[in-house]
Amino acid sequence: MMNINRNLVAFGCVAAIAIAQATFWERSISGYLGEGDSKEFEFALTRGDYKVDLTGGNTRGDLDCFVYNADGDLIGSDDLDDNNPIVDFRAASTGTYTVQVMNYGVSQSYRGNIRSTGVTAPQSFMRTMEGYLVESESDEFTLSLSNGTYRVDLTGRNSRGDLDCFVYNSRGDLVGSDELEDNNPIVEFRVSSSQSYTIKVFNYGAAQAYSGSIRRL
Could you read off the pLDDT tens digit of each residue along the chain, which spans 217 residues? Predict the structure, then answer.
């Protein structure tokens, strides 16, 4: 049976889990657009104030920018006739926000960033994980995590089960595992830079349901 990839969801938004950020947070935005083309970028943001600042690479370009919340509502924009859109907006709640870049002028590259200008203090983080696996089947959970130490704690529901757990960073490097012959894998690992992590749960014993969580320590 093929692996089941479950992307954990924050507030019903399919993308990445919003994690409380440090006092200052920044991500780069760049690309190339033909005339009339657009590009969308999704970011998991905590409640707070943010700024998008972009610059086109062609003096005859006309770059615009629009920001939408998880409900698709426009919450900020810059559609002036220039090539340096700047959008200040407030994330009213933790969730996934979309930055849309549109090019109304000649084809051009562009670059810039989105950064925090006033984010709420870091918060605790915990997400539940559960599923059902037959013998030799596996599940995957993909999460976006910020700096910190995390603990995965899972429990299988069948006394004849053998549940194992492996954690990989965005490059596919193994950063933590528990493959003991038991049904309660526990993995602690350190996140040194914000990125996506994959948790793989393997069942080497009898078919069973399992549940547990990942939390920041």
Answer: 334 444 443 333 333 333 333 346 889 999 999 999 999 999 988 888 899 999 999 999 899 999 999 889 999 999 999 999 999 999 988 889 999 999 998 999 999 999 988 654 444 678 889 999 999 999 999 988 888 889 999 999 999 999 999 999 999 999 999 999 999 999 999 988 788 899 999 999 899 999 999 998 8
Residue 190 contacts residue 149 (beta carbons within 8 Å): yes
Residues 6+ apart with CB under 8 A from 176: 152, 166, 167, 187, 188, 189
Looking at the fold, whether 149 and 76 belong to one and the same domain comes out as no
- Asked if residue 19 is part of any domain, the answer here is no
| 3-state SS string for 78-122 | ECCCCCCCEEEEEECCCEEEEEEEEECCCCEEEEEEEEEEEECCC
Query: Domain of 139?
Result: 4-8+125-216
Domain count, the chain: 2
**Of 14, 23, 73, the residue nearest 44 (C-alpha):** 14
- pTM, full prediction: 0.48
In the structure encoding, which two tokens stand for residue 93, read together?
Answer: 């709640």
